[in-house]
Amino acid sequence: MCGILGIIGKVDEANFRHALDLMRHRGPDDSGVFHKGNFHMGFRRLSIIDLSREANQPMFSEDGRFGILFNGEIYNFREIRDELLNAGHSFTTTGDTEVILRSFKQWGTGCFRRLNGMFSIAIFDFVNEEVTLARDRLGIKPLYFHNFGDCFGFSSEIKSLVHLSDEKFELNLDSLCSYFCFRYPVSGETLFSGIHSFPAGSWMRVKDSEIIEQKKYWELKYSLNSSMERDPAVIVSEVRRLLEDSIERRMVSDVPIGAYLSGGVDSSAVAAIMASKSESKLNTYTIGFEEEGYNEFRYSRMVSELYDTNHIEITLDSEGYLSTMEELIKIRDSPLGVPNEVPLFIMSKRLKEDITVVLSGEGADEIFGGYGRIFRSSEDLELIEKWKERGYALDSELDHRLEHRYGGSFESEIEMFLHLYRYVPLDKIEYLFGQKIVSDFNDGPTIETFRSVFAEAKGVDFQTTMMYVFENLHLPGLLQRLDATTMGASVEGRVPFVDHNLVEYSFRIPNDFKMRWIDEIPTNTIGADSSEVLDITKWSLKQACFDILPKEIIERKKVGFPVPLKNWFGSGSIDVVTNNLLKGRLVSSGLIEREKIEKLTSEEEQEGQNSMLLWMLINLEIFLSSYPDLEVNIN
To answer: Is 0.90 surpassed by the pTM of this model?
Structure first.
């Protein structure tokens, strides 16, 4: 919906305006600023609901006590509005911002748990001279904060806080390692030491530039103790009901809407339900590469033809990939997590020609067992222990598969999970950055965050714990990706599978109704080999959509969104990558030795085994070059 910026303390008003306008892509339709004493409010608007000027922000209560900055959408605002009308409130707008403001007047911080939506909110109390910040339950909408000098600042994007601060920022090395291991800074820190991501499902009160109170208003861990639903017919029916309700709520808009349609079950289900509920022909969009095997056009066409959507296919090649990647990194204020962020950004730019709101399928795999290869691996513990008892012998095909996937046994479930979940192995990271950085990382806030989330799931089985960790720590990375690739193109992305009612219910579904064995439970196969071969992942979701999707879509195996990096590197792009890395800040700062990059690129040319690592390194190089004043201190 927009970008917000706030400062408590002294600030140059012209500099504040410039910092706000750095986020113009988040809100090209209008803007607003307000300064009163040490309170400074800034807003860039992307008009979605109530397009009138009266709905612009900052917005103030009729008595002048409260002012609000709000980024996001509240899907149940009309129900809350009716409740407030019955309580004696009156309204001058028809949108959701005023509903939040009057809800805060009515219920204080208790209002946040009433909201169904995605949001980052700042409410200024000019009487008590304090600010209350809040973020949605699962962290869909971004919010960053920073204490600098005698000021406290918050923003939808990091760049605005960096611009307003006079201090020198250092590269956060723990976040750096987290990026290579887990694709983004998991701990809630950022790559800028001192700038923090606001915790999801929380609110905070700030006075005199100090945090005076902070509380969680929602925690998923309480759903782990809910009674389980064991009737498959009830499960399937309830999943369908909750999904339809979630999608219908997210179709409320005063501007045109559409859907991403990759051809997988998740996006296809969203598009199918949208099309059946839409009063006009639905716009759907898909993107892929010209190389064979790198698009899903055939499957997305099936759904488009079935529901007669206005379907747009976008085909990409390697030309312009690096320049678009650089543009997106500057929007994100961080390296990209996966190569497909670039095509998603390009697709968002194209769909902006037709629509302003797009629904997407993120969040289904986490709650319905879609990551079967890793979730099924929780069942390998017994096989590993038996293998250990036999001295890690390699007497059978199973022994060799255990050796290849695990290499040995683990001291704890969390150690096994981290072994499976790391994107880049620790020995590679140690090779690049040195033993001390990795040692500090193993004892630092990122790994402690994993330990804390594992502890929240104490008492439940390992497989459920894995899903819980994915929902808490994997999903936020996907949501950051969606926000950057859509808002960077002035498009609002909505995620029906991240509705908290659906998420809470999913943890009442037994795992054998998420990943369902086709026949007998195998005894001599590791989880990674049995997933989607001997079982059906996302069974309850697929059953819920069986009557609205083609059988071929339902029965497809999970496919990611591949980008042909190896093809490109093999066709000369490796020279561009090598030159950028060898002449850039990674080497000049001493973060990585020149010889190590030369070795990686040589191995890539000869064996093609470092494409993804080189891609991540060029991301990091572009990021560091975008912030030349970001200090790199490896001592």
So the answer is: yes
